[in-house]
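# nightly structure sweep
# worker-07 picked up a monomer target from the shared queue
# config: single-sequence mode, recycle default, output format = structure tokens
# input follows
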Amino acid sequence: WPVQGEVLTNYSVETLAYDVTMADWRTHAGLDIAAAAGTEVRAPASGVVVEVTEDVMVGTTCANLASVPTVEVGDEVTVGDIIGSVGATAIAESALPSHLHFSVEREGQSVDPMELLNG
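# output follows
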């Protein structure tokens, strides 16, 4: 797991879930895992960093990381490497308690992160 904590919001792309921040019903292509701001986020798998982004609604990189991750594009990571810390950069999820929004894509398609985490 990238952080240890209670799952606040499950992955839901087939069924709409109520979003308390945006006050509407929408899909949720990730897991929201409760963790205090500043908690280290660890790589849940080995690989190469292919993108580091900043989005006004979902925050830095893996949505809601602190604004300055500890990795850059091209860095190789192994399971457990620190890749950043939990932040409060995701405006679209600001009504939730402090957490990491963790999403996974395989070949450009969203997949349930539990497939990776429960292996």
